Amino acid sequence: MVFSKYLGGQRHMLSRIALSASMLALAVAAPAVMAETPTYAENFRLTDQNRFAHDLFHYKDAPAVVLMSTTMDSDAAAKSMKAMAELQAKYEAKGVKFYLINPSQSETRADVRAKMADLDLADMTVLMDESQLVSESLSFDTTGEVLVLSPAKGYKVLYSGPVGADTAKVISALVAGEAPEPKMIDAVGGDKIELLHSDAGKFENISYSKDVAPILVEKCGACHAEGGIAPWEINSYEKVMGFAPMIREVIRTDRMPPYFPDPHIGEFENDDELTLEEQRTIVHWIEAGAPRGEGEDPLATADLTIEDWPLGEPDYIVNVTPFTLPTTGLLDYEYPVIENELTEGKWIKATHVRPGSMQGVHHVTSGYIQNYNKSDELESDSIEGRLPGGSVGSYTPGQNPQTFPEGVGTYLSPDGAYRFSMHYTTFGKEETDRTQVGLYFHDEAPDYIMRSSVIGDSNFEIPAGEDNYYVKSYLKFPADAEIYVLYPHAHYRGKHVELTMLKPDGSEEILISLPRYDFNWQRDYNPVEPIQVPAGSKLVAEWWYDNSENNWANPDFTANVLPGDQTHEEMMYFRVNYRWLDETPENVTTHTEEMMKDRLFASLDDSLDEKVQKAEVIGRRNTWLAEGFDKYDTDGDGELTRVEFAAAQKDRPRRNMRAGVNEFGDIEEGAGEEKKDKEADMTSLETESQAGLQ
Fold it and tell me: Domain boundary residue among 420, 446, 472?
């Protein structure tokens, strides 16, 4: 692999963070005042009008980054934006990045999209500074103020003023590799921007004891506690004081707390995101010097202990087969099978996967194999013979215990077995993992059955250097359902994901959007209210990937990336947990089986028109279909219907894959009910892993 530039990029980012930290250390040493135009721009992350997140430091190799303040209700701003668009048209192809920053508290993203379309400026990026913290730090006062930054000089401000000829001169010099002297001009003619919380004189009135510490206890204490997954404990004012510059930086870049759904789309349980007011409170307190003030220290007295079993002692504990991780190396997935020792059937109402090696366990998925040791005398119409196997829990970094909705459960037959998919990563030390899974049971049989299905696509190949590669797939629900859990998953190159429901009446609803996906923090997102899915609806998952050098987490930006279960490969994966409204333990349906048989067709139908065009047949494993397309297109209309596609499957090359495991290294619901030493062909979206291939 090529790591030199990757590591260089990391060093660049760390040096800029260190610079920000040193600047903030001065702020902590003495109360701050609102500055004039800053000498350097600090890193930030903001979401644009189209729900994509942008980090200032992402474009470290750009010759220049140009920022301009704006709002949508200003004629002066509209004039400045058009002038900015002319500069963008001239310099964008030369690598210069242009951003408009909108700190308005009243304008929505829909307002921005509509206004930019009216101005014929829809291709410009408008960053929504909802907290106004970025605009404060850039000292924006009126619309139309422009800052030209030099990433090569640590994002130094080399121009401040109105957009015009002087702006172009500085940009041209930077594009030419020159080092122009900073030029600061008063920006006149713009409209006043109301930064409602920027009075630095009031920052000293923020109380650590009453205002700041309670937020830290509520939003940070679950991880930053003794035995927690965070690297340090947030247990005193002194500890917070020492980390104050870092705390300010991770809030401004929206890295902490690690909760990433767009707050304007959906409402989810366990929402740990800081509110806008909480963000301002902590950042302004730090900018005032992080004063201790009067009052007790709530962090010193808070109960932040991590419980082994947050839901209480489990009814039953499954001990996953121990696995010893070597110090180094790329590890294949482990798929241990543990026979159920219970002598009677049970219904799960909650699970908690507790890793034995916090550093070595990357993630865990699971399934239950009903009738693993099925006896000959077991009646085919008994409950054990009819119910599907489901998940018995999963784990990813940041994951909470999983509790099923009231009246919903997964059945465990007494003759079944637990099957796990264990993804381990080495970390420079030999360690034995002894993961445990705590199961909590219903006292009585629930009314409904929990189901789980994956929207996926294994047809792609991400070109080296591509920074916005797009993949789409869907599941078509054949019956009414309601969804309880949304879980997106990709690897290091995944950057943005959305799930949208297209309803039979033509309407659509975005169910969740993660403006910036972070591979290091993955979790289930449980809607506060179950999502109702009418029969015939399509759940469309969309992923965007960044395989460029600017993606600091990218293992190798020179490689074309194929699908696979290892982290240097990629996944297009979106799991949903749901129930069918007409399904009960007494009336088990085949809706899930029907839906999953359509998954391969859906993964190719990018146009969502219920047909597969020849241009949609991509991917190495679909070469056979592309080459024989005209033969399979029996009516000669240039498209494959579901009937034609199904008929073509007789020619599809078969691959032997591990029983009960899908192409994502995941446990497939209802699959693998054979003995553990028997191989089964997985006929939905299977792909050979490219592990170890570069």
Answer: 446
pLDDT of residue 230: 84
Indicate the range of 32-41, 398-407, 417-426, 490-499 predicted with least confidence: 32-41
Range of the domain at 474: 451-610
Within 8 A by CB and 6+ apart from 447, the residues are: 407, 408, 584, 585
The verdict on 215 and 161 lying in the same domain is: no
Evaluate whether 279 touches 273 at the Cβ level (below 8 Å): no
Q: Are residues 423 and 561 in the same domain?
A: no
Instruction: Assess whether 422 and 336 both reside in one domain.
Output: yes
**Is 689 part of any domain?**
no
Indicate which CATH number applies to the domain containing 424: 2.60.120.230
Q: What average pLDDT does the chain have?
A: 88
How many domains does one find in the chain?
A: 4
Helix/strand/coil for 596 = helix
438 shares a domain with 489: no
Q: What average pLDDT does this structure show over 566-588?
A: 94
CB 278: neighbour CB atoms within 10 A? 20
Tell me if 190 is assigned to some domain. Answer: no
Cα–Cα distances (Å) from 505 to 475, 531, 535, 594, in that order, read 17, 17, 11, 22
Confidence of residue 374 (pLDDT cuts 50, 70, 90): low
Give me the helix-helix angle, 4-29 and 276-287, nearest 10°.
70
Same domain, residue pair 101 and 130? yes
Rounded CA separation 138/160 (Å):
10
- The per-residue DSSP string of 327-348 comes to SSS----B--EEE---SS-EEE
Tell which wins on pLDDT, 502 or 676: 502
Query: On the CB side of 365, how many CA atoms lie within 13 Å of its CA?
Result: 23
Is the pLDDT score of 659 beyond 90? no
Q: Do residues 489 and 546 share a domain?
A: yes
Global model pTM greater than 0.85: yes
- Do residues 423 and 333 touch, judged by C-beta distance below 8 A? yes
Lowest mean pLDDT of 41-50, 109-118, 350-359, 507-516, name the range: 350-359
Angle, CA of 43, 45 and 46, to the nearest 5°: 135
Residues 6+ away with beta carbon under 8 Å from 549: 5, 6, 9, 61, 465, 557
Residues 589, 475 within the same domain: yes
User: CA-based Rg of the chain, rounded to a whole angstrom?
Assistant: 27
Handedness of CA 612, 618, 619, 624 (dihedral sign): positive
The token pair that represents 383 in the structure block: 């409950």
